[in-house]
Write a structure and sequence with these properties.
- 2 copies of one chain form a homodimer.
- Chain A is α+β, with helices and mostly antiparallel strands.
- In chain A, about 40% of the residues lie in helices and about 20% in strands.
- Chain A is built from 8 helices and 11 strands.
- In chain A, helix 3 crosses helix 4.
- The interface between A and B is large, with 43 and 43 residues.
- The structure holds a DNA duplex.
Chain lengths: ~250, ~250
DNA sequence: CGAGTATTTGACGAAGCTCAATACCTGTGG
DNA sequence: CCACAGGTATTGAGCTTCGTCAAATACTCG
């Protein structure tokens, strides 16, 4: 099957979690990609203030949404894994009110907005699935606020690790409770809105409690139940339908 | 014109900010409402964990999205003003991962999900405008995270007041820099993720700086420029196209 | 090996929380 | 009309979490 090796495969696989796709729909998604480019880690995929004429699908690598405050500090508001349509919202929402940075080398696919418009007008099934993705993003954002607002630093870290684990599991990137994280402690501190010093201390706290191991860029969860408890983690907002770890 | 007094008027007015509506589209929106009910202040409009068969349009009054943490504290993640489609996302995102409470007595209109589905399949123009509303919500959520993460308490309060002022202005509910707020300091503290004691202190800080007055349930902004500066407020994320106060 | 980056540690300071008490405000019943 | 109850706002004092500054240690890659 040609579609098994299609460029849009990471997105198709993700969408199929939420509804069946006809092979015609798969072809349409695949045909929607105008080009693929590589972005090196550390550089921006989309810049605040710009009005792109295409949306960006993350094929491989990791990226983050962020804003820079007046004092120059960076607040990350979301992390993205392969299969995420990182700026689908900018189809209707221009100019961008935040930037997206590649955390590692990323392969990204561009989908022109006029093609999205055509899909939207003629393919209500696909349109619904795409809308759903942005709604799930919205839920993730609400949850991000909850973490920032009502969890202590070590709880928030535990929560974030739970979230990343499930999202990595969904795309088949976990192995025996461990997964690859592309985050330095500085970037992590920009997710959690902590100083990097305090971030280091809460990482060590979870290590000391023997809940996680974190070596190099690999996190291993050694006590899932306790991690969930510490982070007050409820996976509903991720809308992941199949998981080995959680019953949904 | 009958449509001038239609039930869906607050929504229609809002949508017209983002694109023209044909009179047929207006009629469709109006006809989408299956019933109108009144919810008394303090009670929930939608409850976490439920899977409503309709979405709720706020016709009058104020409401808030919130989650309750394990310790029982409430984190508010968004405020809603008349014209907001408070749970449009639950058309595709069930069950609800948060609740919505009426802050004051609210008149709300119910729009059945099967009607939304029909609109979505047959009215791409309307569908796009509705999608856009959920995308704007998403941007508001990102901004809420930024406020929680990277602003000091008094800055965050200033930011929230700026936001509410512009949203109230958009629906014609401001007068000489003042507007009605349905928030007690306890509720405000649940927006800002502060204790009510500290919330009181930052309210007094802004009063002391003569940037705002806040008497009973009326806020008067006496120094807009300084309030914007303190809150590091950039209104782009609200996607308000006309305002007397800000140039967009 | 050396330079640059990431992590770790300590000491001290600031922002915000908790507890507790007091004042205020509004509606209710006697 | 007054007393009272229940919520709301305000204030003070001591404490916790987290931030800042500064330095030291590890790790990575050429």
């Amino acid at each position: 099957m040609a579609s098994a090796t299609s460029t849009a495969r990471p997105l198709i696989t993700k969408l199929q979690n939420y509804g069946p796709l006809s092979s015609e729909e798969e072809q349409i998604l695949d045909g929607a990609i105008s080009s693929v480019r590589e972005v090196e880690g550390g550089s921006d995929i989309v810049l605040e203030g710009t009005s792109p004429e295409h949306s960006t699908l993350l094929l491989s690598g990791f990226s983050a949404r962020y804003n820079i405050s007046m004092e120059g500090t960076r607040q990350i508001t979301a992390l993205h894994v392969p299969g995420d349509f990182v700026d689908l919202h900018c189809y209707l929402l221009k100019p961008m009110d935040h930037s997206i940075i590649a955390l590692t080398t990323c392969r990204v696919a561009m989908v022109p907005h006029d093609v999205l418009g055509h899909i939207f007008d003629t393919q209500p099934g696909l349109a619904r699935l795409l809308w759903l993705q942005t709604l799930i993003d919205g839920g993730a954002h609400r949850n991000w606020s909850i973490g920032l607002g009502s969890l202590l630093a070590h709880q928030h870290l535990a929560h974030l690790i739970c979230e990343m684990y499930l999202r990595m599991e969904q795309i088949g990137r976990t192995e025996n409770g461990s997964f690859h994280v592309p985050l330095t402690q500085v970037l992590l501190s920009q997710c959690l809105a902590l100083s990097s010093v305090h971030t280091n201390r809460v990482v060590q706290m979870l290590r000391g409690e023997k809940v996680i191991r974190w070596e190099r860029d690999v996190i291993t969860i050694t006590d899932w139940d306790r991690l969930v408890e510490i982070g007050e983690f409820d996976p509903l907002y991720l809308r992941i339908l199949r998981s080995k770890v959680v019953a949904v």
